Amino acid sequence: GSVDAERSNVTELVSKMDPYGKRTIFVLTKVDMAEANLHDSGRIKKILEGKLFPMKALGYFAVVTGKGNADDPIDLIQKYEEEFFQNSKLFRDGIFKANQTTTRNLSFAVSDCFWKMVKESVEQQTDTFKATKFTLETEWKNSFPKMREQDRDELFEKARGEILDEVVNLSLIPSQQWEDNLTKYLWEKMSNFIFDDVFLTAAQAESISDFNTTVDVKLQQWAEKELPRQCIDIGQFVLLDEFQNLIEREQKSRSNDPITNDIKLQVVQECRT
């Protein structure tokens, strides 16, 4: 704008924050106005060569940001910028280098800078992970010299096999135990309905025959609509409850390997949701 960059402290702040210019790209805007009003073309040349300001940068670019109308569309601004540099005297005189002009080249430079920083960061993280992995593997070998290492896939298959074993063990549960649990949860689920909706409603009848009729109608409607769905829900609940009991019982045994405990319980929780 109207503030002379040489009298601004921005370059000084940038120099303090990034003294080696590894994260800085210098952008000279409104060069169309600078060309129209500037008598010393060497000043712009020094700016784009990084010789005028006390700072370092990865690159120096000259761009035109439009004619000053904030409502101009992007394509119109780009067209104006391209036409300016094509007809620019400074460009023809070699003050502007082709690779230092236009917003397009600037965007390429910013993209290259960004991905270079990402690559460096990823490489640093990779080195850190490799060092951590080596430390853990060495610690494992020294702590458990007689045990074989297993990767994530092998541990998953181990847990999967143990879960399937528990599924097989469900068939060993006595039928009486299944019946008792189903009866218990079925009554807990339906007792309120039996007393509140069936018995109390029928109790208002004036005769025994009316009472029996109301009870029969209520129970028939319930048996046709609600009972099948509730039986399925209760059956699933009892099945998962027994399955979880088997897992928890196995986890308490001395031969149990605790490394698969969490995934087993997570499987049960996922089945419940």
From TrEMBL:
Domain Dynamin-type G residue range list: 1-123
EC numbers, comma separated: 3.6.5.5
Keyword Zinc appears in the UniProt entry: no
GO process terms (BP): endocytosis; intracellular distribution of mitochondria; mitochondrial fission; mitochondrial fusion; peroxisome fission
Keywords for this protein: GTP-binding, Nucleotide-binding
Gene Ontology cellular-component annotations: microtubule; mitochondrial intermembrane space; mitochondrial membrane
EC class name: hydrolase
Pfam families in the cross-refs: OPA1_C (PF19434)
Listed PANTHER family: DYNAMIN, DYNAMIN-LIKE 120 KDA PROTEIN, MITOCHONDRIAL
UniProt protein name: dynamin GTPase
